[in-house]
């Protein structure tokens, strides 16, 4: 009885958690696209493109975490060795994707911060 109830709960929870992941990734793609177009049409295209990439990357990481959570839930009820192996492979791939994406996001964030002028700084030379 307990395992059957848990199985029923998981059967309901998995599609919901997967939908959260899809929603986060879709929102990230849409907003990044809007920022990208606005940036290309604006005066600071390079900075806007970098910001769009950072936003998309962060939301991809969150979306992938939701997808991984759904995979873990799916295998929570009496998994077979095949299911455990598949989960391990999926978890390894998604963890590697997250790791490299996080590294790229961190590097991009640092690059943006070093390219940004200090507050109050101007391009005019100091008076002599």
Overall description:
The chain has one domain. With 128 residues, the chain is mainly alpha-helical. The protein has helices spanning 2-41, 45-74, 81-115. The model has no long low-confidence stretch (mean pLDDT 82). It has three helices and no strands.
Largest sheet: none
Helix content: over 70%
Question: What series of H and E elements makes up the topology?
Answer: HHH
Instruction: Summarize model confidence as the mean pLDDT.
Output: 82
Name the shape in a single word. Answer: elongated
Unreliable stretches (pLDDT < 50, length at least 5) are none
Q: What structural category arises from helix and sheet content?
A: mainly alpha
Strand content: under 5%
Beginning-to-end CA distance, first to last residue: 85 Å
The radius of gyration over CA amounts to 21 Å
How many domains make up the coordinates? 1
What is the number of beta strands? 0
Number of helices: 3
Protein traits:
single chain; 128 residues; mainly alpha
Annotate the secondary structure layout.
Layout: H1 2-41, H2 45-74, H3 81-115
Helix pairs in contact: 1-2, 2-3
């Amino acid at each position: 009885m307990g395992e059957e109830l848990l199985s029923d709960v998981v059967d309901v929870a998995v599609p919901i958690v997967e939908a959260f992941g899809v929603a986060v990734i879709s929102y990230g793609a849409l907003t990044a696209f809007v920022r990208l177009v606005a940036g290309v049409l604006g005066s600071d295209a390079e900075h806007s493109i970098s910001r769009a990439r950072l936003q998309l990357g962060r939301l991809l990481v969150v979306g992938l975490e939701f997808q991984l959570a759904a995979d873990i839930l799916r295998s929570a009820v009496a998994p077979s060795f095949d299911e455990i192996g598949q989960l391990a492979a999926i978890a390894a791939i998604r963890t590697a994707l997250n790791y490299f994406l996080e590294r790229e996001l961190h590097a991009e964030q640092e690059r943006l911060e070093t390219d940004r002028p200090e507050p109050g700084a101007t391009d005019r030379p100091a008076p002599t």
